[in-house]
Amino acid sequence: MSDKALSSEQAEFQAFCRAWLQENKPAPHPTPLPQAAYEVTDPSHLAYLTEWQAKCYEAGLIASDLPQNYGGHGMTGCQQIASAEVRAAGVPYFINWIGLGMAVPTLLECGTEAQKETFLPPIFSAEHIWCQGFSEPGAGSDLASLQASAVKEGDQWVINGSKVWTSLGHFAQYMLLLARQDKSDKYGGITYFLAPMDQPGITVKPIHKMTGESGFNEVFLDNAIVGDHLRVGNVGDGWKVAMATLTSERGAGVGVGAVAGESPMLVMAQVIQLAKDTRRNGRRVWDDPVWRDRIVKVYERTEASLYNGRRARIKALNGGAMRIPLQGKLTGSEISQSLHQIALGILGLKSSLYVGDENAPANGKWPLGYMNTYTGTISGGSSEIQRNILGERVLGLAKSK
């Protein structure tokens, strides 16, 4: 939203956000934070980030536009402003990104009034951290083939099975859980639950990545109990509710807070500065027309993607199958990968120096970030899946075999 399009109230709120973020930006944690919220494993990092999110919520930068009975601040047209200012301010990310980006939009669209009033406020304040229990070891891209079972016993469900790639599962109080109550119906046999994580039937084990980090987890459910009042939607409607969650994960949900970390333009600025600071053969990399051309081409894509993203909130411009958000998820993750590839190229041989090496530029930020960009091109539906959806549902192309 451009400054020219703001109402007087929105302009006043924008000025408040900028001033508040400048005055309240927290001092750096004694040890560097992971590059993304899904890699947080240190309890002290969790406490630091939880306190920061709660402070932003109290100031009105989270849930700005939602009704007060859901824990919102009751403003109009202000959340997009707040989120943009948070991303531009270079402040820490919000730890409860699954709660804000997936649980909240899902509950607003599909939850009961009691579920909204109970679960939303603690999500905004980060009192309750959430994780997502969709993917399984044998059901990755084909999510509908999941096999975790849900058996109804009285007014509760008994869940058995396992989930994988569960970010923040080691800290979460609740999980967005898909389980199968009917094995004979691939899509209609799935039900959606809000599963409490703090119970004997749930075991969380870390998954160590090539980066050395372990923010992802495998979760085992052994006779875990979920009350029927924690079911979202009707029995067998889990696939429909899951589509609401996945739409939000891909960037088209109701905005309640800046769930991302550094903005693409901020990373772009860092890459440009890196090119200006790095010398090769007696001159700055930035002065090499070949490298400058590579950087400018990604700059153009980054700028175009940001402007395109602003159109996603306007239904008439969005097109079928949530075209703009799906396109944004696809291009955004690949732009991030391109930016980090360029940074590694600028660094040359120094790009092989990793986190912990005292000679590594920026403490290994760029090689670590490059490996982590593959998370973005895989999670929430891989780039290949996004292209299939856009091709089939938007462009009307024949289904791939």
Low-confidence runs of at least 5 consecutive residues: none
Q: Tell me, what's the shape? A: globular
- Gyration radius over CA: 22 Å
CATH level 4 superfamily of the largest domain = Butyryl-CoA Dehydrogenase, subunit A, domain 3
The major β-sheet equals: 4 strands, mixed
Distance between the termini: 41 Å
Q: Largest beta sheet: what is the strand line-up?
A: 1-4-5-8
Quickly give the CATH architecture of the largest domain: Up-down Bundle
Which fold name fills CATH's third level, the topology of the largest domain?
Butyryl-CoA Dehydrogenase, subunit A, domain 3
- The residue fraction in helices comes out at 40-55%
> Helix count?
12
**Can you write the helix and strand succession as a string?**
HHHHHEEEEEEEEHHEEHHHHH
Mean pLDDT comes to 89
Number of strands: 10
What does this protein look like?
- With 401 residues, the protein is an alpha+beta fold.
- It folds into 3 domains: 3-127, Orthogonal Bundle (Butyryl-Coa Dehydrogenase, subunit A, domain 1), CATH 1.10.540.10; 131-249, Beta Barrel (Butyryl-CoA Dehydrogenase, subunit A, domain 2), CATH 2.40.110; 262-394, Butyryl-CoA Dehydrogenase, subunit A, domain 3, CATH 1.20.140.10.
- Helices cover 44% and strands 14% of the residues.
- It has 12 helices and 10 strands.
- The protein has helices spanning 8-24, 43-59, 79-88, 97-110, 113-124, 238-252, 264-277, 289-310, 315-318, 323-347, 365-378, 383-394, and strands at residues 130-133, 149-153, 156-164, 174-180, 190-196, 202-207, 216-227, 231-232, 279-280, 283-284.
- The strands form 3 sheets. Strands 1-4-5-8 form a 4-stranded mixed β-sheet.
- Strand 2 (149-153) and strand 3 form a beta hairpin.
- It is globular, with a radius of gyration of 22 Å.
